[in-house]
Each structure stands twice: as C-alpha cells, then as structure tokens.
Amino acid sequence: MVPCANMATAAERREAAVGGFEEKDFYLDEFRAHTLCFAVALSDCEQAGGFEMLGTVVRELIANDSRVILLLGVDAEHRSAASSISGVSKRLEPFVVCEQTANRFPRKRGGRKLGHCVLDLAVGGEDAGLPLGDFWRILRAAPLVTALVDGAALVEMAQRLTTRLRVHKLVIIEPAGGIATPQGLQLSFMDDAMLTAVLQTGEAEWAGLETRRPTLRAIQSALRGGVHAVNLCALHGLSRELYTYEGSGTLFTLEDYCRVERLGIDDFEQVERLLERGQREGFLKVRTPAELTRILLNGYGATIGEHHLAGVCALETEHYARERAGEIVGLYTITRFKGEGVGGRLVDRVLKDARSAGLSYVFACSVDPRAQGFFARRGFRLVSPTDVPASKWTGYDRARIKQVQVLRYDLEVTETTT
To answer: What's the burial of 395, exposed, middle or buried (CB within 10 Å: 0-12/13-18/19+)?
Structure first.
C-alpha cells in the first residue's frame, strides 16, 4: 500500500511554507460527513500534474470522512484507453488509495481498487441520463464514485446530478478559473442577486462573460435547486480555493453575500485564529489573552454564506463610559473578501449600535495606511491622541504611539447635520 502522508504537490508545499494552509482544518471540518461533487474535463487532468492535484484533494476529503462524486468530461471524438474506466482508475489510484484512505474502500480481488467505483456515462452522450441508483449503490460501499460523462454536457450534468442528490458543494473546474470584472478584478463571491443581474440580456456580453453564460446559468440552477454552495476555479488553484480564506476562484451562494451579527461563543475559536493572523501580518497590535477576550465578548462577525467568517471587529466602551465614547478594535477582514465591502458593513453595524447606545463618538487607532484610508473614506477624521479618552493610552506601547493615527467619528454632530 502506498503511504500518502507526504504526497503533497509542489504547489501545496509552497503554500504550506508560507502558512497558506493554516485554515485547512476549518474547511475540512465543514466538509466532514458531506458529499462534494467535482466537475472537470478529463483533458485538464491530463495536463502536467493534473491528476495529482485532483487526486490529492479527493484523498484528503475521503480521509476526512467526506464523500466525493467526480464527474470527468470526456471528448467523445478523442476517446482513448486513457479515458476508459481502467485508464482513469490507474491515473487516480496512486493519489487516492493509500494508507489513510484504503479502509474506506471495499476489498476486491487483487486489492482495493477504484475500477469498481467508475461509471462510464459518456458512451451514450447526454441522452444516457443520470443513473442515480448506481451513484447511490457505489457510495454506500465506497467514499468515491467517478463518472465519465459527455464533455459537451459536463456542467449541465453536474447541475442536474447535484440538484437531484442535493449535495453539499459543487466544484466546477475550468481553465479560466473564477469570474473577473471587465477590469480584471477577481470576484471572490457572487450571490443569486448578482448572478441574476449578470444573466440579464446583454449583461454577460458587456462584462466579457458571454462564453461563461452556460456555466453561470448552471450554477444558479444548482443553488436554487438546493446545492449549498458552488465554487468555480482552475485546477491548479483547487486546494487554495477549498482550503484557504484567500481562495483562488469565485464562491457562489444563494443568499445575500454578507451578514453582520454579534459574535457567539461558537465563533470564538475561529475569531481567535483570524485575530492572530492579523497580528502576524502586522495589521493588528499584539494583544494579551484578556484583551482578546474583551474583543470576543464585544465583537461582531461578518459571515459570507453560512459558514465563512470573512471579517471581525469589536466595539469597546467599558473604559470610556464617562466620555460616552467607543473604540473600534480588532478590525480585520480576510484577503479574499476585501473587495466585497465586508469592512464597511462591519463598521456600519458598529456605528448603528453606537448610536442606539447613546454614544457621543467612536474612534479607531491604526498604524496601517490602508486602514487609515479606509476609516477616512467612511467619514472618520484625523484627530490628536488628546481628542480621545486619556485612558486609551494607559500602558500603551510608547514606540507604537508615535506611529499610530487616531481617527474619530462624531455621532451627535453627524446626526445633527444629516
């Protein structure tokens, strides 16, 4: 049996070296006991390292107690031995069946193989239909079913299958990767409302997405049919898309892309990881456990979809009650969602609650020019350290205070003039 523990791709090893996979456990926990479906052209897998990248992700999910449906689009005009059941099995097996996953596969003559987990649906083309019973029969005995399907109908068949089976996540893998704006800006997230707007007559063409209209239609149909979420990415970015906050493609969900709520106790572990990440990157100052606890208890979280915590912050008022002031602390948004207005939504919610609480003003302190510009664009004005409560500076690091800028938002003045 092949040991797979160290069979990371070169790309994965580079990512791990810079801490890119620190969030993997969080996402694997989300996928545990769920079924994920991947739709990818077999020709993409046959590119250098393609089967390794795909097989590695499949293996990790299976070792995590997830089920996987793998749809491989086959070009009917160029079918070969490599695109047969035995050919695909031989290409995938070295990366999928190993010490960590072998016990999940039933033993057959000659050992644990993938051949009995592969369906060939490409022969009959699109009219072959979806043998749902066969999918369920295989998944009852093994954690993986691979189906060869007509390449021209790959995305449509993926939508039909995942909707019918109500899978947790559909991952569509295309060379073009995720969706980008006409200016080349990657869209990390799209919801149903955004999809509807793009799919209106002429909109996809204007945005340069005409060739991707069928994929976007299939994604919307899958979401409306009950699929929890859809990811669209390139094969070389698959691990990064599934396992990291940054992602590599576009995540699609049905509901509004972002909601901001007060943090609950079940959020604390994930929030601590985000705050520690912000500290390592130099965006947030290093805080004591007691200070982190105050952030958690007074914090807000911006959630993408149902599970993706995209940003956090807190409003501290305890030490500033006499001045009726509040401080925005620990504001940090994940790189992937910086362009989605997450930080703005967090601050808007904080200001709303500050008004309701009768505060006179809210302030923020930062040494990061980007954060300073962000607050300035939201109506905060640069003030002197003496324009906020003196208790803010008790025990404050003297070296940092020389670098920090203080920005203040006067709630009473703003309400009087608006």
So the answer is: exposed
